[in-house]
Amino acid sequence: MLQKVIYMKKFGKNKLEDIVHGIFLILGLVTIACVLMITIYLVIAGIPAIKEIGLIDFLFGSKWASTAAEPSFGILPFILTSIYGTAGAIIIGVPIGFMTAVFTAKVAPKKIRMAIEEAVSLLAGIPSVVYGLVGMLILVPGIRELFDIPDGASLFAAIIVLAIMILPSIINVSLTALEAVPKEYEEASLALGATEIETYFRVSVPAAKSGIAAAVVLGVGRAIGEAMAVMMVSGNAPNMPNSIFQSVRFLTTAVASEMSYSSGLQRQALFSIALVLFLFIMMINALLNFLMKHEKEA
After folding, report:
1. Residue 58 Cα distances to 49, 208, 217, 281, angstroms
2. How far apart are CA 121 and CA 266, in angstroms?
3. Which DSSP category does 72 fall into?
4. What is the DSSP letter of 126?
5. Which runs of consecutive H residues, i.e. helices, occur in the chain?
6. In angstroms, rounded to a whole number, what is the distance separating the alpha carbons of residues 93 and 167?
7. CA–CA separation, 202 vs 198, rounded Å?
8. What are phi and psi of 78, to 5 degrees?
9. Which residues, other chains included, contact 156 with Cβ-Cβ below 8 Å and sequence gap of 6+?
10. Is residue 73 within 8 Å of residue 58, measured between CB atoms?
11. Which of 90, 92, 186, 218 has the greatest number of CB atoms lying within 10 Å of its CB?
């Protein structure tokens, strides 16, 4: 009788585990299916315009005039603007977010840590349109007055806004990765005579590098995919980004600003821009994953 009870409990536990595994498998397949559907739709919707305009003219054309009598559909200004804006935001945001995460996880007293975590959570919950509104009312006039230029709505303003917007993602993910490092690593380092700062940056940070890399990937995705906030502070003009104080237009804002009234080839070209943006994000993720895997194997 006892053996039968034990067998039934074991059988019920295994059955429950199989059900949970099945649910996880279904959810994973749904996620993959969504990505495939988005990819297929963007390819189908974006390829016709690229064929009609020409791949070289579309990617490397320097003029975008979709509503002109003789329209031009060159997106090189948008590509360069997105690259410069994302790179600038990462250069500013990653060091600040990383150092904040290290300070919060390893150095900050409990009360200060709670205050930082609350502030980061608040930043994460602010809608992007609010970032854009504050940037448009405060940052843009400040840049205009500080640098004595005609208009503060520029690539520089967009970089500052994006750098602030990616901070919550970088801080939260880096903080989680640093807290997951076993305490034994730090205790062993301290026992060998290393200082606390040396232990944090030579032991804890390398042990959490995969999580920190994931934080950077999330930051890049947030920066390159943002539309509303940068539209409000960048000037949204299809200019080549020859200066950080020039009004520019990002790939995302190009789609968002014209989709509502687009038609025909113009609408197809906007889907092609979305396809290019999608491929950019996939390439960045693949590159960072490859670098992390290569470094791990080495």
Report:
1. 9, 41, 27, 19
2. 40
3. E
4. S
5. 2-53, 55-60, 76-102, 110-125, 128-134, 140-147, 155-165, 167-179, 183-191, 196-199, 205-207, 209-225, 228-233, 251-258, 264-297
6. 6
7. 6
8. -70, -40
9. 143, 244, 245
10. yes
11. 90
pLDDT digits (tens, 9 = 90+) for 11-56: 555 677 778 888 988 998 998 999 899 889 988 988 999 998 888 9
Residue 123 has pLDDT above 80, yes or no: yes
Q: Which residues pair with 64 in a beta bridge?
A: 73
What's residue 136's pLDDT? 92
Res 236: pLDDT: 87
* Distance separating alpha carbons of residues 288 and 217, to the nearest angstrom: 7
Give the number of residues written for the chain: 298
Give the pLDDT band (50/70/90) at residue 2.
very low
* Separation of alpha carbons 230 and 159, rounded Å: 8
Q: How far apart are CA 188 and CA 210, in angstroms?
A: 21
Q: Which of 183, 202, 176, 204 is nearest to 97 (CA)?
A: 176
pTM of the model: 0.85
* DSSP structural state of residue 65: E
Q: How far is CA 77 from the centre of its chain?
A: 20
